[in-house]
Every structure is written in C-alpha cells, then in structure tokens.
C-alpha cells in the first residue's frame, strides 16, 4: 500500500482513518447519508444550540460577540468565541464522522459538505440577497436548502425572539 509522503513522513490521518489512503472520489451512498444527516439531526441540533445561545445567560456571555457586528458581512459568520467554534465543529462533524465509520465516505462527500456549509454560512451573513426572489417563486423548496441573508437578518434583528415558527413563516411567505 503506497501513500503520499509529505516531508518524508506519511500524513497522520492515513494511519487513523480506515481506508484513508484509498478514499474514493465518489460514493452516492455517502453523499446521500451526508445530506440526510445534515438535513435531519444536524439541523435539528443546530437549531436548538442556536436557541440556547440566544438565551440571555449564554447570549450575554458568549453569543453577543457574534451579534456585535452592526452590519453583517461574510467574516461575521465565523466571529464566535472559542467554545462556540468547538460546538459547531462537533455538530457539523456528525455527517463526516458517520460516513467514515460506515465506510461510505468519499472525497466528494467531504469536500462538498464542507464547501456547502462554509458557502451557505458566508452567503447568509453577506448582507445582500445573492439569489433572486423569482427563483424562490419558480422552485419554492430551494428555500429549505439555502441559508439566506433574510434568515440571518431575523436572527440579528430579533436575537431574543428567534423561534422556529417565526423563521418558518418568514420562509413560507418570502
């Protein structure tokens, strides 16, 4: 079994990830599992984590730092105290780790998921709508696949009243 050698050593990940040296480029089952895990448990847990961060106890001690931006911009999406970064890392690692354990991981599932999470997070905080409104009219389910600046502005404008009902209604009537 040959692996790339960096600086005369094998990368540590190749030793700890089963099959890491031979990760396939594409596996449909891994991509589907990643998408389903994100849409299900990850989004559910993210919602409740974010609700908890908006509780006055955690908001005043941690999350208010993220909301200190007067005008949101892409960098705002990653301005968090260290504990929040760890929580988000653990949360968004669920689909990636699961596909590794199930041996359905692929380069596309990993890189696609990470690119999707980062792009949606940055786009959501960019403070202007990139996606034209008519696209949501033509294809309404797209609003459930995208994290838009309208969604983020609700969180920033109403930090004490972030609720699933408000956010859901905003998307239904957008």
From TrEMBL:
The places in or outside the cell where this protein is found are: Membrane
A GO BP entry is: lipid biosynthetic process
Report the residue ranges that make up the Fatty acid hydroxylase domain in this protein. 40-150
Q: What is its main location?
A: membrane
Task: Name the UniProt key words of this record, in alphabetical order.
Answer: Membrane, Transmembrane, Transmembrane helix
- Establish whether keyword Transcription regulation is in the entry: no
Matching entries from InterPro entries are given as: Fatty_acid_hydroxylase, Sterol_Desaturase_Related
Q: Which domain of life is it from?
A: Eukaryota
One GO term in the molecular function aspect is:
iron ion binding
Q: Give the protein family.
A: Belongs to the sterol desaturase family.
- Identification of the protein by name: Fatty acid hydroxylase domain-containing protein
